[in-house]
Amino acid sequence: MMMKKWAFQRNSEPKTTSETPTSSVLTILMSNLNQSDRRPIIPMAHGEPSLSPCFGTIQMTADAIAEAVHSAKFNGYSPTGGLLPARRAVAEYLSEGLTNKLLPDDVFLTMGCKHAAQNILTVLKGSKSNNILFPKPGFPYYEFLARSCHLEVRHFDLLPEKDWEVDLDSVESLADENTVAMVIINPGNPCGNVFTHQHLKKVAEIARNLGILVISDEVYDHIAFAKNPFVSMGNFGSIVPVVTLGSLSKRFIVPGWRLGWLVTHDPNGILKQHGIIESIKGYFHMSSNVPTFIQGALPDILGKREDHISSKNVNIIREAANSCYKGIIDIPGLSCPSKPEGSIFIMVKLDISAFKDIKDDLDFCVKLAKEESVLILPGISVGLKNWLRVTIAIDPSSLEDAIKRLKSFCGRHSKKSKSVECWLDHIS
What we know:
By secondary structure, the chain is an alpha/beta fold.
């Protein structure tokens, strides 16, 4: 008897675009490292400060976890959406910068910020004709989630010449009767920008006029270190319904703990009226809950946080942003439209015409890894071809070394270096 052909098969390999998982690009870069290079690898492609010793986890957070575990009070299952004391702690923590104070019922605890994003995009998928607006450049994980939910993805531009503000005209031109939401990331990943109060209000007004939800990823909310203070999109919930996403990971340097939150800002009750709140709750009935011992520690972590430690980390990032910006703008072939003001990233523009043997941003990053053991993410991974996304949250000494290696690499591949070599050959 002939066996029936197996019906399952793997998906085709993604091309290297903004649809390619960042982890896949990192795998490509890692596979091109020169194993004989004895210098340390400098990781500037992945946003994880916990890899650098200068960003140590705050001891108080570890103590709070240990106390919660030893208390034996948090060994059971968590209720849907999280323990009430934990949700109350998040509501009070986030309310510090908000006009309309939050209630525990506005807060849903998640397995990190990605889980929060997965929840709200799943809720919004609706019919197959629905679409959602994402920033370009942006965080590619949102696109994978949206497509898995059968949401059509459309991109509005961020404007580098205007400190990466949202191109509001492009938002209006992209939206139609099937658009359900727009996503912003503030402080910005990958742009390192911080939106002003005035600009966020304009975003809220545009979204209200279009009848769409605003989803604001605020995982870097505490890392704003320049002229623009961080303002939560939640302040504009009275203009348009807003969902904010956040987590413990970056402020407390504990990304592996996987504790995040989805918070609704909707004083006019529009989300409840349209069944979104019930759908969010329904999703949590189908998904895993945050470990209860981490929830048990949350009131202590958020209520007794050591802000001087957090400020120290932000100061390190501020100095890194200044050093990186000054170092990069001094390298021929590279430019930065603006100095970073928040988060842990900077976007760098590549002038491909300045190099004699570099095809594009991916080629640049692969050769940089191979020749200098420096890992930087090509801009195509976040939606902008021939740009680079550079992570600045690394040890200051490593950052200094990275700038030197980057300068050496660009000098070696510069068209000008070839002219100099020819000139030297001519006079010798």
